[in-house]
Prior knowledge:
Shape: elongated
Structural class: alpha+beta
Order of helices and strands: HEEEEHHEHH
Distance between the termini: 80 Å
Helix content: 40-55%
Amino acid sequence: MDQQVPYTMVAKSLVAASASLMRTFANRPIGVGRRVLQVKEPLGPSTAGGKLSRQVLALVQGSSSVPIGWLDVVNAECALKEYPMIKLAHELRGGAALDFTADDYAAFSALLTAELVSLEVKVRIEVVDASELLTEKTMRPVGRGRQVDPMVLVLGVVVLALLGVAGVLLFQRA
């Protein structure tokens, strides 16, 4: 906990809870990348009476961070994303392949859930229907750029041809 920041009572409880969870999971890295749990501290010294009490949960290694959910200590709630959702979000952000598997994540989230339940925090897993993961960006074939309407393309060619003819006529008169 940062001694320089004068946290309110609610913010202090969030910082203490995040420090406790990170200590508990510091020796339980996940995957080949050996990522560890990070619970982001509140953005400021106050949480507006708990209204801004959600803290981001992420698996980090160095400067690389993979968000996996959020924790709200004030309201005793937590939401964890399921693996396909995490993987897709990471890929859409331009990240390389995840360095932990679905099995690694399942084992980690089971331990995290058990720890949070022991602290009387309600945990829910955010499950997404696979059809909801299909967006315009995920369905576009890799390497395929923006498509141009054929009529706009034809119009552009005609305009260029007319400009070319006009240029030739102007040079012939000069």
